[in-house]
Amino acid sequence: MPEHYDIIIVGTSFASSFFLLRVLQKADPQSRILVLERGNADSHSWQINNFSNSSTSPSLIKSANGASSWLSHIGWGGNSNSWWGSAPRFMPSDFKLKSQYGVGNDWPISYRELAPYYHEAEQIMQVAGANDASAFPKNKPYAQAAHKLSEPDRLFQSAFPQHFFPQPSARARTATQNRPACCAIGKCHLCPNNAKFSVQNELAFLYEDPRVTLKLQSTANKINFSRGLAESVVYTHNNRNQVVQGDLIILGANALFNPHLLLRSGDHHPMLGKNLTSQVSVKVAVNLDGVDNFQGSTSITGHGYMIYDGPHRSQRAGALIETHNTPTLRTEKGKWRQRLMMNILYEDLPNPRNQIKIASHDPDQISIQYQGHSDYTQKAIDQLPEDLDRILTALPIENYSISPVNPIHTQYHGTTPMGDDPQTSIVDKNLRHHQYDNLFVLGAGAFPSGSPAHPALTISALSLRAADSI
Ligand SMILES: Cc1cc2nc3c(=O)[nH]c(=O)nc-3n(C[C@H](O)[C@H](O)[C@H](O)COP(=O)(O)OP(=O)(O)OC[C@H]3O[C@@H](n4cnc5c(N)ncnc54)[C@H](O)[C@@H]3O)c2cc1C
Hints:
The chain is of the alpha/beta class. It has helices at 14-26, 44-50, 97-101, 111-125, 151-159, 199-202, 254-264, 375-382, 384-391, 456-468, and strands spanning 3-10, 33-36, 60-62, 69-71, 128-129, 144-145, 164-166, 212-215, 218-226, 229-237, 240-251, 277-278, 280-288, 300-304, 319-324, 339-346, 355-358, 366-369, 397-402, 408-409, 412-413, 439-441. Bound molecules: flavin-adenine dinucleotide.
């Protein structure tokens, strides 16, 4: 007989761990929860010593046409080990893109419904942010005071007081019980002093709970369905297939691997795996004229909302501007610090031709079919020089240059969208699978449309909400 658990969770990163956190708050002392993790427990010191986030490869997967690469680190804590810790909320309009701007899709939940969970996730991650002003409605304080801005940030803030704020950051401003303050060195994917929130440094206690069994090097391959329920999970450990039964099955393997697992399990919903969408990022290097940079207390200090929301979103993508405080020095004498690096993060629209499939040569592998970003996003990128001419009037500058679009994708979503209609969505507004009542599919796959803002805080808030719905 296969072993039986009350709950089986796949993955150990934001989506799974925030769900597990809430479940453990509610579960009785006899509960048995199994967590399957494909990778190893590569500790922070292992990562630093090996200059790598993961001992399991590959981390970078090329799309089928070879034009783009998709980064995802496998192991205990997933991409919470490699993320940069930028933790803004989405804007209310991100949840209503279709009704407000006639593009993308509306979410089946509103910003207001998610707001209490945003607050809770921010407290758990100990997010540092500004309480006096923000781009999104917020009525409770951040866990930590905002990071110190740089001089260029301060100039932006006085020119655009309604549209420029300190970045909400899970890189500690002040030490927490488990983490020191951010050292602002700008190597955040391998945070040298472990100041950035990760599952390993703040949520390790979940995996020490006697109700939880964590099985490492255990790859979930298939879910067996029976009579409208997810009955068991087949996983590989030490090259052997094992079957385990669960009353509740939770997938938190991200927007690339969740759909792959469902497709391999025989879920043939026409929307499954489709609409793989990624934020598109473009870097701008600004040579300042007489203003020094790099006085801030973390690596990314500012968030500009000057081209994020507004009527333009019916024609072209919105974008979030990040200002970097990581020293990238100029070579001219006396001007070393007169440089500002900005990252412009564009949203994109869902396109069903961009999708996850099972690789034809090996069903264990995913095939990423990605044609590139939409005309909607390209129009916004084409508009960037004009936008910058307006935005950069806030600073004394000599000149600027724009880099080509970054072909490496780190912030992706779609593929298992949430919605009220089972014909057009995979999960309901609580991330419960429409067809299988005891199956939850967590993570950014559930986003019906994206946002220019970073996804991890929203993923975490959605998981807390999903676990509350049980
Ligand atoms: C370099 C980098 C920087 C980033 N910076 C930011 C940022 O600053 N802010 C932000 O909001 N977002 C950022 N992101 C994106 C963010 O990290 C992801 O959106 C987020 O981690 C997704 O969370 P998740 O829990 O859904 O999945 P993941 O973090 O991708 O974790 C998936 C988990 O599932 C496991 N797994 C996968 N397949 C299986 C299987 N078959 N069986 C068992 N286990 C499996 C993995 O090992 C892992 O534990 C960044 C990403 C990268 C790579």
